[in-house]
């Protein structure tokens, strides 16, 4: 196998071992299982902390749900397309790996809702669809007259007890009526989790509302209080950022920084087994070989993590095995720019599931991201999403039919009848963990169990948030936990 000038072989793996100077790590050998953004962030911090690090990724590609590619010669994201800017972890990491100058907020905002027969403006003054300011909601036409008339009952109804946890949809419906849930909360929360708000944990998914619900009776007043606190704290600037060339560039840049720090990265390398070899040692079983390590970071989805932990932490494995995932598909289409001149001047629209459409959202990508608008020339890119937890029938269609069904909905919603010049369907099977009621306690229990294993840490979207900043923070937390268990200067488990 040939090698490049920087010592990587032609699969992109690090040819040498040890730290940047080629020597053994000062704090032992750590294996990171999983090459998504959480595992990459963990590996980077572990190397900076003096560990000798090997990162193993089962697929042939790094980045997980962050995937930059192209359509019709135009660079696009085929997975996550934005970073929450008001959490610092992901933007800080982007700057750390040299992408700071490429961070860009959306060029346009103003997303809409396609509901009750037409596009309607997304009401302002709400938190995850829960209204605090009723005037924009009333003028939007999102709710019927009966739905609007139901809202004032929130001020006179007795307090809704939620105990240790409750479903977002059930709690909001009890306070404000089902229309608010079905036409506002569902599409917004579904855009984050691809899930059902009547099953998703209030405590895990919208913790600020969970806390506010314990403080007072009225949910509307709770939202107003959160908005006042945000205003007093001076919350400003963009809510989201993109990256020129695609969010999928971020894991590649982190991987490059990892290699520069001495991390050995192997793709196409599934981990089959994790077993203890002594008080502080681990054997990582691969196909036809094994690695020895002093510590392990597990940065894979819940089911895969459960398989790895089944032998050494069966209780934790059982907790992980109970986590359900949602599958979805992204339909990315390229059009001639002259064929989309009549599209609304917005970033796209969300679709409440109650309206019975195939698509759950549409993003006018070339309008939303200035870098994509510039790169596209005469090509305009948009994408739709299909599927959510418990509603997967549409995903049974083949790719050609998903494109057709998306086009039919776009034709009805915004009058787009032209045929695309190119289309790609990206299926994310088991892509998003579902934070069911009791999720916070489940994570606490499994971490207690894993905490009994010396030198093992967990990270990823299943634990503390599905967004990119949360995943980066999770990876860095896992790295700190592992580094605290290693003895500086100790011999590492370098053997295979």
Automatic annotation (TrEMBL):
Lineage: Bacteria, Bacillati, Actinomycetota, Actinomycetes, Kitasatosporales
Protein name, entry field: Coproporphyrinogen III oxidase
GO biological process terms, semicolon-separated: heme biosynthetic process
Reaction(s) catalysed by this chain's protein: coproporphyrinogen III + 3 O2 = coproporphyrin III + 3 H2O2
NCBIfam families assigned to the protein according to its UniProt record, in alphabetical order: proto_IX_ox
Compositional bias of kind Gly residues: 15-24
Family designation: Belongs to the protoporphyrinogen/coproporphyrinogen oxidase family. Coproporphyrinogen III oxidase subfamily.
Keywords recorded for this protein, A-Z: Cytoplasm, FAD, Flavoprotein, Heme biosynthesis, Oxidoreductase
Biological source species: Actinacidiphila yanglinensis
Domain Amine oxidase residue range list: 37-483
């Amino acid at each position: 196998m040939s090698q490049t000038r920087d010592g990587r072989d032609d699969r992109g793996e690090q040819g040498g071992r040890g730290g940047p100077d080629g020597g053994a790590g000062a704090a032992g050998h750590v294996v990171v299982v999983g090459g998504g953004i959480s595992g990459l962030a963990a590996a980077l911090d572990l190397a900076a902390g003096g560990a000798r690090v090997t990162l193993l990724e089962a697929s042939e590609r790094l980045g997980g749900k962050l995937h930059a590619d192209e359509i019709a010669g135009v660079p696009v994201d085929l997975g996550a397309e934005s970073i929450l800017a008001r959490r610092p972890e992901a933007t800080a990491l982007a700057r750390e790996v040299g992408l700071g100058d490429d961070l860009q907020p959306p060029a346009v905002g103003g997303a809409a809702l396609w509901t009750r027969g037409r596009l309607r403006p997304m009401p302002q003054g709400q938190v995850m669809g829960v209204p605090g300011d009723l005037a924009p909601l009333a003028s939007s036409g999102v709710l019927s007259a009966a739905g609007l008339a139901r809202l004032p009952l929130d001020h006179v109804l007795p307090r809704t007890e939620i105990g240790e946890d409750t479903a977002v949809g059930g709690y909001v419906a009890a306070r404000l009526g089902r229309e608010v849930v079905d036409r506002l909360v569902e599409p917004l929360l579904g855009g984050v989790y691809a899930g059902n708000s009547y099953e998703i944990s209030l405590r895990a998914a919208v913790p600020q509302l969970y806390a506010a619900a314990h403080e007072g009776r009225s949910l509307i007043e709770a939202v107003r209080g959160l908005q006042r606190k945000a205003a007093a704290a001076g919350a400003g600037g963009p809510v989201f950022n993109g990256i020129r060339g695609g969010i999928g560039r971020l894991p590649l840049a982190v991987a490059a920084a990892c290699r520069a720090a001495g991390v050995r990265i192997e793709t196409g390398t599934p981990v089959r087994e994790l077993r203890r070899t002594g008080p502080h040692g681990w054997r990582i079983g691969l196909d036809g070989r094994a690695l020895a390590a002093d510590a392990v970071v597990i940065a894979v989805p819940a089911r895969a993590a459960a398989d790895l932990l089944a032998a050494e932490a069966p209780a934790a494995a059982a907790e992980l095995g109970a986590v359900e995932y949602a599958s979805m598909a992204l339909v990315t289409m390229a059009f001639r720019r002259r064929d989309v001149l009549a599209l609304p001047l917005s970033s796209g629209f969300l679709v409440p599931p109650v309206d019975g459409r195939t698509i759950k959202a549409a993003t006018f990508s070339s309008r939303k991201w200035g870098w994509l608008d510039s790169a596209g020339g005469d090509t305009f890119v948009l994408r739709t999403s299909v599927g959510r937890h418990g509603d997967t029938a549409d995903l049974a269609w083949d790719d050609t039919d998903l494109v057709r069904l998306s086009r039919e909905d776009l034709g009805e919603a915004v009058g787009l009848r032209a045929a695309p010049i190119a289309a790609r369907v990206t299926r994310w099977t088991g892509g998003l963990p579902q934070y069911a009621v009791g999720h916070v306690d489940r994570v606490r229990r499994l971490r207690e169990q894993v905490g009994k294993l010396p030198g093992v840490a967990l990270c990823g979207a299943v634990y503390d948030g599905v967004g990119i900043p949360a995943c980066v923070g999770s990876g860095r937390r896992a790295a700190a936990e592992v580094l605290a268990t290693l003895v500086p200067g100790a011999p590492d488990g370098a053997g295979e």
